[in-house]
Write a structure and sequence with these properties.
Largest sheet: 6 strands, antiparallel
Order of helices and strands: HEEEHHHEEHEEHEEH
Distance between the termini: 39 Å
Number of strands: 9
Strand content: 25-35%
Number of helices: 7
Length: 233
């Protein structure tokens, strides 16, 4: 199933009563097409009288994956654990430290759930989208050698063509066109944002791609044939 706002809200209400004794404040529920995570809790941190204040809670759930209902429920509960830890001011060594893991383990044992530490998408889930789609891709090399990838929304390509030139710590850029489904895993960007990827992972998926160039108000493919290693910045 693909989650919707009603499902997320109903799941939150149900598990807030069943597991958290209705102690959790209701966050905003937001759908995203993110391909790198299934769920994420966001909030604002401010300081008041030398004490941290947490508010503006937002639970983001991705519609980019088709999963069984029970798995989506576990994703919601996972984010609710984060909300519980923050609102109860429970100290933990990291976002998924001992406190988080104890609460998660207790819920799994008592309520028969299968919550896992990470809600990041697995490689299998990322590779599930086999649609053939045309991608305008910005490939960027950082000054530390890392590779950044950004599939750009077609309507924003002209403005982003220049914006990526000024991206912090980027030393070289190439633009390519590709229809390889592997790039479906990255959300299309409307502002200058890069997703770090390993060069050896990207290389096989550049086969058949074309180098792009800007000519006035036109983006066109460079006529010469390029091998995959020539398309990397």
């Amino acid at each position: 199933m693909i989650p919707d706002i009603l499902f997320i809200k109903d799941s939150f209400t149900h598990f807030n009563s069943l597991i958290f004794r209705e102690e959790l404040p209701e966050p905003r529920f937001v759908l995203t097409r993110a391909r790198t995570f299934r769920g994420k809790l966001c909030y604002r941190v401010s300081h008041s009288f030398m004490r941290k204040k947490y508010d503006d809670f937002e639970m983001r759930i991705s519609t980019g994956f088709d999963l069984p209902r029970a798995e989506w429920e576990d994703v919601v509960i996972h984010e609710m654990i984060h909300l519980f830890i923050v609102t109860k001011r429970i100290n933990d060594s990291s976002s998924h430290g001992p406190a988080f893991r104890k609460i998660m383990t207790d819920i799994n044992r008592i309520h028969g759930r299968k919550i896992v530490v990470s809600t990041r998408a697995t490689e299998e889930q990322l590779d599930a989208d086999k649609r053939i789609r045309g991608h305008y891709l910005c490939l960027a090399k950082f000054n530390d050698g890392r590779l950044g990838v950004a599939p750009v929304t077609k309507t924003r390509i002209f403005s982003l063509w220049n914006d990526f030139q000024k991206f912090p710590n980027v030393v070289s850029i190439k633009w390519i066109g590709s229809t390889d489904p592997w790039f479906n895993r990255f959300p299309r960007v409307m502002k200058a944002k890069l997703y770090v990827a390993k060069r050896e992972e990207v290389m096989p998926h550049l086969k058949g791609a074309v180098l792009l160039e800007q000519s006035g108000n036109t983006i066109r493919a460079v006529s010469k044939r390029c091998y995959p290693d020539e398309l990397l910045p």
